[in-house]
Backbone:
């Protein structure tokens, strides 16, 4: 097996791409809620900014991250997949996603999440690296904290 | 020194990881254990185990002898003048906390300062912050130079007002590999009326430590980095200081007599060793010390100097690699960053190739920030490390960089 084959289970092209050039990796000029996420064990840090629409649904998410390719890619894919979702919907997606990165398999879920989970699927490979699961979930913890009105989250 | 023969003493090194030969370059975090240590602990459990210092029976006496032999071995290792100056603790962190609580609260006056350096492990920062906040001492930090050495002029300037009561400083940085000039630090500190504690967690693994030659007042180290078990470390302190210091923890083992009105303390070092100690770990530590002394520090230092030189030369040839610290006097740890990839990604990709390194802030966040970084990868070497393993790291890093480019 070559080096490349050996690591592609985790570092798929979509992760490398979003890790290198995140589309949402910036602070929003105007936002309604924000929170920071910290992983004190490894020093990863992410700050998310969320603009809500009139119905309280996510209109736009931006983030500033200091961390590895996994955490940046995860934050970017998160920003993409939560657009248009309400709080409960976002939380449901996070719970399903979290289960997926922990176990490597996608658990039963509402069909409305299908498309988003398919988009997030490349991150499932992280389950083989227990110490890296938190890299993938940290931005989600921060996002949920922002929606809940808590200013800080930790992936510990 | 025959590295292949040494490698055969470490059962774990013959393992494969993810189908690949294990290349263990994380000894500075915790070293692997030789068969002698494993056997000593197992034999004690299988043949003589009992509690120490109390049972009037054969087993307890044998175990007490074996455990106390570790104290003699530790004293000899450091050239301590008196075996009773060896206090067993869990690790270096506990040793430093013991000094902070016991010496700090009783012998340092509020307003006096503790002087540390800009390359300390968190274990030699946080206890002094806690002392500052509870006792009113000041915390001073002596800066380091861009090459990762202690700025001696700044260090001396910080001592000059005579307010520093204690210098607490690493003897070898766990990130930069820098070995600090111990004798000079002590002579400057003593000239300004300050005592000196060394955090020797890394240093004692790589070179002979002679506390009498250094002239320091306290010296802390931990067993698990010296090829011994976890859960046991050593605080060496000058007897006259240990005798003046109050106990750290109270309980059994550390008393002379107890009534409800008043208790009196056991003599040094038992005054500082409350509760049933780490008996098996002490026995394991003795075996580790014997093992290291059998090989000899001269051979160990020469081997690791050659490895470090090789690693620095090879790593600096890789495009985009930045090595932290270029100290003249350094031990076998090399922290580095790669321009195209975060340290965690580097570590994961190396792990995928069977190579174990540490990644993160190495429990030295202020030091990372000093160099404008949040995390680095770190390769660290031990007596069993080979040149081929460093070559494997270099080859793997080149692939990692290509992958992320």
Residues:
């Amino acid at each position: 097996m070559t080096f490349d084959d050996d690591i592609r289970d985790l570092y798929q092209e979509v992760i490398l791409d979003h890790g290198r050039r995140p589309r949402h990796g910036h602070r929003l000029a105007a936002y309604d809620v924000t929170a920071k996420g910290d992983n004190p064990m490894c020093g990863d840090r992410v700050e998310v900014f969320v603009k809500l629409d009139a119905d309280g649904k996510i209109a736009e998410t931006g983030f500033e991250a200091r961390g590895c390719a996994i955490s940046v890619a995860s934050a970017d894919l998160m920003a993409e997949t939560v657009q248009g979702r309400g709080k409960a919907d976002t939380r449901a997606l996070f719970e399903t996603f979290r289960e997926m990165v922990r176990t490597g398999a996608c658990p039963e879920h509402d069909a409305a999440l299908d498309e988003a989970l398919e988009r997030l699927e490349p991150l499932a490979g992280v389950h083989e690296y227990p110490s890296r699961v938190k890299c993938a979930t940290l931005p989600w913890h921060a996002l949920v904290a922002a929606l809940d009105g808590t200013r800080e989250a930790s992936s510990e | 020194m025959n590295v292949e023969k040494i490698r055969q003493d470490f059962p774990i090194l013959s393992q494969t990881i993810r189908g690949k030969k294990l290349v263990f370059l994380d000894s500075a975090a915790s070293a692997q254990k030789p068969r002698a240590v494993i056997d000593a602990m197992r034999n004690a459990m299988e043949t003589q185990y009992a509690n120490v210092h109390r049972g009037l029976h054969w087993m307890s006496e044998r175990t007490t002898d074996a455990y106390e032999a570790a104290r003699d071995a530790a004293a000899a290792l450091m050239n301590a003048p008196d075996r009773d100056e060896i206090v067993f603790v869990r690790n270096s962190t506990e040793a430093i906390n013991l000094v902070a609580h016991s010496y700090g609260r009783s012998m340092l006056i509020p307003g006096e300062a503790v002087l540390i350096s800009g390359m300390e492990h968190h274990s030699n920062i946080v206890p002094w912050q806690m002392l500052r906040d509870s006792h009113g001492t000041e915390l001073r930090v002596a800066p380091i130079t861009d090459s990762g050495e202690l700025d001696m002029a700044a260090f001396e300037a910080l001592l000059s007002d005579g307010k520093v009561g204690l210098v607490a400083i690493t003897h070898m940085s766990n990130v930069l590999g820098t070995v600090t000039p111990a004798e000079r630090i002590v002579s400057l500190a003593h000239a300004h009326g300050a005592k000196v504690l060394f955090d020797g967690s890394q240093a004692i693994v790589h070179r002979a430590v002679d506390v009498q030659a250094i002239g320091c007042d306290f010296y802390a180290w931990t067993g698990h980095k010296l090829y011994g078990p976890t859960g046991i470390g050593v605080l060496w302190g000058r007897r006259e200081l240990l005798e003046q210091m109050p106990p750290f923890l109270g309980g059994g083992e550390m008393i002379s007599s107890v009534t409800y009105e008043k208790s009196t303390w056991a003599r040094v070092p038992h005054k500082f060793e409350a509760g049933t100690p780490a008996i098996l770990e002490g026995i394991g530590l003795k075996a580790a010390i014997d093992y290291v002394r059998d090989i000899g520090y001269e051979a160990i230092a020469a081997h690791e100097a050659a490895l470090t030189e090789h690693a620095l030369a090879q790593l600096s040839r890789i495009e985009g690699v930045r090595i932290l610290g270029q100290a003249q006097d350094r031990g076998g740890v090399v922290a580095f960053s790669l321009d195209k990839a975060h340290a965690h990604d580097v570590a994961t990709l190396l792990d995928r190739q069977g190579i174990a390194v540490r990644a993160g802030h190495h429990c030295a966040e202020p030091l990372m920030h000093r160099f404008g970084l949040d995390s680095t990868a770190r390769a660290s070497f031990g007596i069993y490390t080979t040149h081929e393993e460093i070559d494997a790291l270099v080859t793997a890093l080149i692939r990692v960089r290509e992958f992320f480019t």
